[in-house]
């Protein structure tokens, strides 16, 4: 029997926000892997929020319950769009989901920031909807 190679970031399908929006209109689920605080500020309608990482005093850590929490609300054969703030956490979450046996996951390139930039988040000013990524150093 042939051994299955673990999936990597290179194996993750990435779709742009326009494709993601189209998929959502056909029944895909939107899994928002940002922190609860990021999600509370603004999010895609009907999104599920299961944080992939938490910010702690020691730095960022992966949510140890991420996969069980996803399994409690999503089936492995469901079609899912996974997104974070800018795309990094989303792609890493997709790797974990693929390795756990989820068959149809795609990372939304650019994350929720790209969704806002595309004008899909409503009428509020973009600055009110977007937040600086907590997991990257700030540029000067």
Automatic annotation (TrEMBL):
<dbReference type="InterPro" id="IPR001763">
    <property type="entry name" value="Rhodanese-like_dom"/>
</dbReference>
<dbReference type="GO" id="GO:0030611">
    <property type="term" value="F:arsenate reductase activity"/>
</dbReference>
<dbReference type="GO" id="GO:0005737">
    <property type="term" value="C:cytoplasm"/>
</dbReference>
<dbReference type="Pfam" id="PF00581">
    <property type="entry name" value="Rhodanese"/>
</dbReference>
<dbReference type="InterPro" id="IPR044684">
    <property type="entry name" value="STR17/STR18/HARC1-like"/>
</dbReference>
<dbReference type="GO" id="GO:0071722">
    <property type="term" value="P:detoxification of arsenic-containing substance"/>
</dbReference>
<protein>
    <submittedName>
        <fullName>Predicted protein</fullName>
    </submittedName>
</protein>
<feature type="domain" description="Rhodanese">
    <location>
        <begin position="24"/>
        <end position="124"/>
    </location>
</feature>
<dbReference type="InterPro" id="IPR036873">
    <property type="entry name" value="Rhodanese-like_dom_sf"/>
</dbReference>
<dbReference type="GO" id="GO:0005634">
    <property type="term" value="C:nucleus"/>
</dbReference>
């Amino acid at each position: 029997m042939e051994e299955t190679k673990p999936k990597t970031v290179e194996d993750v399908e990435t779709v742009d926000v326009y494709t993601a929006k189209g998929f959502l209109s056909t029944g895909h689920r939107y899994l928002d892997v940002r922190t609860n605080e990021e999600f509370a500020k603004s999010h895609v309608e009907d999104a599920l929020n299961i944080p992939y990482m938490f910010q702690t005093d020691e730095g960022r850590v992966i949510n140890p319950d991420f996969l069980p929490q996803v399994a409690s609300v999503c089936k492995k054969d469901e079609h899912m769009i996974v997104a974070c703030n800018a795309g990094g956490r989303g792609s890493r979450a997709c790797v974990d989901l693929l390795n756990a046996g989820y068959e149809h996951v795609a990372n939304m390139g650019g994350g929720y920031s790209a969704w806002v930039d595309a004008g899909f988040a409503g009428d509020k000013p973009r600055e009110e909807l977007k937040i600086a990524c907590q997991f990257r150093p700030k540029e000067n």
